[in-house]
Amino acid sequence: AVTAIEVAMKNQNGLTLIEMMITLAVAIVLVAVGIPAFRSITANNRAVAQSNALVTALNLARGEAVKRGAPVTVCRAVDDACDDDSNDWASGWVVFDDTDGSGTVENAERIQVWGPPSGTPTIIALDDSDNEVHVVSFDALGAQATAGIPTFTITNPDCKGDQVRAVTVSPTGQISTTRSACP
């Protein structure tokens, strides 16, 4: 007596060459369509992460200013010190409590340092009059204590669509993030 399994196994012949070629062609089309979408998702996630790091630093400075009852500053950092030579914040930033009022970061004043964000973004900070912004300070009430309304524009070299992020600090110290089109 022949069982049903033995009959089913005798009737299976495997895949033909044409069936394998069609399967391979479908797989190639799916990969070709998926890779650009994956790159776009990766670039968008990188922009979000970069803006979130900056927002975190600004929120930390604001919170520390309120907690300490004294001004706390965020500045563009090079080697853990403030740098006014460039307006590109992509080298990182430092949050510090300028207790001596010198405008420079001493070891005891340093609260936290952020190194360069991942990728190679351009992070430009301008105020509402298009003046360069080198520092953002918060007073003891959490309000922004620098002149103008600073906006940080974060652009990545592989920017497509609306992947530019703008981080704005209002006079009251509120921090907001918006998206805009790539240049």
Structural class: alpha+beta
Number of helices: 2
Mean pLDDT across all amino acids:
86
* Poorly predicted regions: none
User: What order do the SSEs take from the amino end to the carboxyl end, as H and E?
Assistant: HHEEEEEEEEE
Description:
The structure is a single chain. By secondary structure, this protein is α+β, with helices and mostly antiparallel strands. 33% of the residues lie in helices and 24% in strands. It has helices at 4-11, 17-68; strands at 72-78, 81-82, 93-96, 110-114, 122-126, 135-138, 151-155, 164-169, 175-180. The strands form 2 sheets. Strands 1, 2, 3, 4 and 6 form a 5-stranded antiparallel beta sheet that branches. It has a 4-stranded antiparallel beta sheet with strand order 5-7-8-9, covered by helices on one side. A hairpin with a 5-residue loop joins strand 8 and strand 9. The N and C termini lie far apart (76 Å).
Keywords:
elongated; 5-stranded antiparallel beta sheet; alpha+beta; 9 strands; 2 helices; 183 residues
Which helices and strands, and how do they pair?
Blueprint: H1 4-11, H2 17-68, E1 72-78, E2 81-82, E3 93-96, E4 110-114, E5 122-126, E6 135-138, E7 151-155, E8 164-169, E9 175-180
Antiparallel strand pairs: 1-2, 1-3, 1-6, 3-4, 5-7, 7-8, 8-9
